[in-house]
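re: the backbone from monday

yeah here it is again, tokenized this time
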């Protein structure tokens, strides 16, 4: 019986890292959007939250909104989503603009919040987990300027996201693309970056002979260089 139930369930192919972001059209608090087409040439943080008018989501929205200009400086747009009506979205955002919290006040939330009552987008992006069919989990998709999914994060309902970490991920991805490097654990801008490891024995030997003041070689496979 259980097996039959499983077989009859709709199979969702959610996007994975490296996939093209699935296309959708949606109504948002800033009008209709075609995604990712309307964001061509920009990076996007597409994030879902369980519900409007809930405490953790409120702190997340206020924090994201307070950092919107910092994300814009990284050529990055914010797009939120939940399975709530447009009227609920509008009322909640208007409310948040009147609240002061954690040094955040006089907010103006002018990035789009998707109305996904139909669950069209949440289904496409695998934002519905477990038994819940009425609320999205805290998902984050970092999508690059070519519409490719570069990072996927999932958080549980009780844990608010760390927006500084999401910003750090965007900076690290943009750094990796620009300079063909990788970034080590707990990397922050300005700290040394990693030179990709050699892929042949001759290259590994050659690597051991590098003599450059900007290079810090700990092993043939672990070489740092200054972030310039
Ligand atoms: C919140 O955002 O506060 C929240 C949402 C869903 C479940 C629990 C908390």
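seq for it, each position gets an aa:
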């Amino acid at each position: 019986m259980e097996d039959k139930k499983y077989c009859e369930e709709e199979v969702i192919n959610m996007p994975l890292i490296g996939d093209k972001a699935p296309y959708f059209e949606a109504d948002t608090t800033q009008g209709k959007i075609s995604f990712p087409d309307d964001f061509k040439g920009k990076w996007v943080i597409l994030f879902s939250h369980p519900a409007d008018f809930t405490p953790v989501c409120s702190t997340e929205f206020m924090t994201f909104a307070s950092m919107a200009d910092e994300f814009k400086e990284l050529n990055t747009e914010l797009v939120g989503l939940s399975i709530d009506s447009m009227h609920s979205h509008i009322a909640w955002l208007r409310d948040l603009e009147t609240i002061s919290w954690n040094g955040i006040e006089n907010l103006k939330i002018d990035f789009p919040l998707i109305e996904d009552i139909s669950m069209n987008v949440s289904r496409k992006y695998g934002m519905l987990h477990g038994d819940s069919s009425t609320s999205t989990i805290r998902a984050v998709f970092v999508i690059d300027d070519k519409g490719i999914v570069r990072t996927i994060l999932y958080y549980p309902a009780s844990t608010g996201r760390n927006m500084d970490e999401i910003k750090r991920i965007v900076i690290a991805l943009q750094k990796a693309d620009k300079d063909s490097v990788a970034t080590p654990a707990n990397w922050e801008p300005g700290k040394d970056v990693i030179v990709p490891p050699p892929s042949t024995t001759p290259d590994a030997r050659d690597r051991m002979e590098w003599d450059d003041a900007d290079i810090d070689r700990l092993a043939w496979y672990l070489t740092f260089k200054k972030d310039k």
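Residues 2-162 form a domain with the Glutaredoxin fold (CATH 3.40.30.10). Residues 1-5 have pLDDT under 50 and may be disordered.
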